[in-house]
Amino acid sequence: MATTDNLIDFLKPSSDSTESLYKQLSRSLNNAIQDGLLSPGDALIPERDLATRLKMSRITVRKAIDQLVEIGLLVKRQGAGTVVSENVDLVLHKNLSSLNSFTADMKKRGLESYSRVVLREEGKASPKEALILNLNEGDLVHRLNRVRYLVNEPLLYEIAVIPASIISITSALDNSLYELLEAKNMNPVTAKQNIHAIIADDNLADKLEVAPGSAVLFVERRGDS
Predict the structure, then answer these.
(1) pLDDT tens, 94-133?
(2) pTM value?
């Protein structure tokens, strides 16, 4: 965990931003977790102290913290205050220019792969999506959920969320998202990747054709162009 002074400097709101203070703080706390300034199990500075140091009201600080509790990044524990969730257990920084899409990866290995579309929709960004993708409330995103098959066996269940202002998700049905983004000169050049083991619920188990309760790897990757 970073020193308190360093963390406070990192969390200070920008006077140039048009975002509300609670949104700025929520986003900064999320970035502090992703960048390793706050580690899993770390206790957050008490709300009262945080409000005083950042010159914010306690209501503003509480609203920002509650948003991160809602999406599972922070946990409130009786007697321990607010701590970083243990589920944020591994963050890897990779150069996406050295990574291929699933389709390209399989072709490189000479393996047969295909996808089955489970969900295709446009909608307003959820609080978690807005926070991760640096969007405002009400901004539209395209969602594309696919089961990826390797030699007729389900290998992974992929959930892609892309700001509607960048690309139409329908154009990705028969193409690689990486290739489509690269064609628009918007391909990601850096990524933050969160990996941890989860237990497959009935819904996920059905898609991957495994028994409910099976252990699977959950990989969340956020790309930045």
Answers:
(1) 444 455 577 777 777 777 888 888 888 889 998 888 888 8
(2) 0.63
* End-to-end Cα distance, the chain: 28
Q: What is the pLDDT of residues 17-61, one digit of tens each?
A: 888 899 899 989 988 987 889 988 899 999 999 999 999 999 999
Q: What is the DSSP string of the chain?
A: ---HHHHHHHHPPPTT--S-HHHHHHHHHHHHHHTTSS-TTPBPPPHHHHHHHHT--HHHHHHHHHHHHHTTSEEEETTTEEEE-TT---EEEE-GGG---HHHHHHHTT--EEEEEEEEEEEEPPHHHHHHTT--TT-EEEEEEEEEEETTEEEEEEEEEEETTT--GGGGSSS-HHHHHHHTT---SEEEEEEEEEE--HHHHHHHT--TT-EEEEEEEEEE-
Instruction: Set out the domains of the chain in order of their start, with CATH numbers.
Output: 4-84 (1.10.10.10), 91-224 (3.40.1410.10)
SS (H, E, C) 166-210: CCCHHHHCCCCHHHHHHHCCCCCCEEEEEEEEEECCHHHHHHHCC
Tokens of residue 136, six digits: 């405002």
Report the distance separating Cα 4 and Cα 28, nearest Å: 14
